[in-house]
Design brief:
Elements: H1 3-29, E1 53-65, E2 68-74, E3 86-90, E4 96-100, E5 110-116, H2 124-131, E6 137-144, E7 155-160, H3 164-177, E8 181-187, H4 196-202, E9 209-213, H5 214-217, H6 222-226, E10 234-238, H7 241-250, E11 257-260, E12 275-279, E13 284-288, H8 294-301, E14 318-323, E15 326-327, H9 335-338, E16 341-343, E17 348-349, E18 353-356
Parallel strand pairs: 7-8, 7-10, 8-9, 10-11, 12-18
Antiparallel strand pairs: 1-2, 1-6, 2-5, 3-4, 3-6, 12-13, 14-16, 14-18, 15-17
Length: 358
């Protein structure tokens, strides 16, 4: 007589177990269930961050100027690169920093980077100088090139200090090809200017190189360097923000200007005020104050949101934008990416409200 009751208990228990499993699967597909499942967000799934991370061995560490260290990173099957490319270094702390490749593209077994110690920086350069030694492995991503050497009848380079790193491979390539080029290279002192001896040797034929050490001759004559440019001459500039601003202001009309920044651009005056950001997936809204980054405001509600460089270079904080007009201030996203996403560490809103897929 007890068998029917036992059978009922077993059947009910089994049905409950199946129901719980089905509910877990449904919630896994959409954490906001019973609302419909949303598409995968950009955060944590960026194609840029999906770029293969490889471990390279530091086989050389050389001081190439006062406060400047050069690293040689070796490994098998390295992707090729062209002058102007840079590499993402994943530092031991987890910080991601970008460094221009300054070696020889024909050296397919190694990458070479150099960095200046910035005493009042955010820690990346200090970590490189103090922790990255010969015999250690370091994770890298890339290379990528947002500062390529374009075809032109002639070239003028205006460089400040460590800004020589992406330009050096360009000069080597142009010197080997017999192209027309000139370089204005400035720095605090000759001792602080990396690769100076090689650069002067490259430019020995035809007085192509002008070196201006500030402790000897003051500031370089940018206007004089850019005067009387031949038609079509491409102008390249890399260095501190004031140097690039001066080059842009002095450049005659009709000449293409190529810039490589080591810090985020300041952006236009528009879009500097406060605005709201709706976090679509959670339904929460945060207020971004004037002078506050979207990242800082969002982290008050979503502390685990991914970020690294905080200067618009690495792409770690890229988020999809569902609504609102973006004030892009990064140096990384392509035009296609700018249509529906932003780097929330530097970019802002040109209106009163943004909606993020977060």
């Amino acid at each position: 007589m007890a068998l029917p009751g036992l059978r009922t208990v077993v059947l009910v228990s089994g049905a409950a177990l199946l129901t719980r499993r089905a509910l877990k699967r449904r919630i896994a597909r959409s954490p906001l269930w019973p609302l419909p499942a949303l598409p995968e967000p950009v955060s944590g799934h960026s194609k840029r961050r999906a770029t293969a991370v490889r471990k390279l061995l530091i086989t050389g560490r050389t001081v190439v100027a006062e406060g400047v260290v050069q690293l040689r990173l070796e490994g098998p099957g390295l992707p090729p690169w062209s002058p102007g490319a840079h590499l993402d270094l994943v530092l031991p702390s987890g910080l991601v920093r970008q460094f221009s490749l300054c070696g020889d593209p024909a050296d397919t077994g190694a990458y070479t980077v150099a960095t200046r110690l910035v005493a009042d920086g955010r820690g990346g350069s200090r970590e490189v100088h103090e922790q990255l030694q010969e015999g250690l492995e370091v994770e890298v991503r890339g290379p990528r090139n947002r500062f390529p050497l374009a075809e032109a009848p002639g070239y003028v380079f205006v460089v400040g200090g460590i800004g020589i790193t992406p330009v050096l491979p360009m000069l080597r390539a142009l010197a080997a090809s017999g192209a027309e080029w000139r370089l204005l290279y400035g720095g605090r002192s000759r001792a602080s200017m990396p690769f100076l001896a090689e650069i002067e040797k490259l430019g020995a034929d035809g007085d192509r190189v002008t070196v201006v050490a500030q402790d000897e001759a003051g500031h370089p004559d940018i206007a004089g360097t850019l005067a009387d440019l031949a038609p079509g001459t491409a102008v390249y500039c890399c260095g501190p923000e004031p140097l690039m601003d001066a080059v842009a202001a002095a450049l005659p009309a009709g000449h293409p200007l190529h810039l490589e920044r080591f810090s985020a651009a300041t952006g236009d005056a528009a879009g500097t005020g406060p605005f709201e950001v709706e976090l679509h997936r959670s339904g929460r809204t945060v207020r971004v104050a004037a002078g506050q980054s979207v990242l800082a405001a969002v982290r008050e509600e979503v502390p685990h949101v991914a970020y690294s460089c905080e200067q618009g270079f690495c792409g770690t904080c890229q988020q999809r934008v569902l609504a609102g007009e973006i004030d892009h201030r990064d140096e990384l996203l392509t035009e296609d990416e700018r249509g529906d996403s932003m780097l929330i560490c530097v970019s802002r809103c040109r209106g009163e409200r943004l909606v993020l897929d977060l």
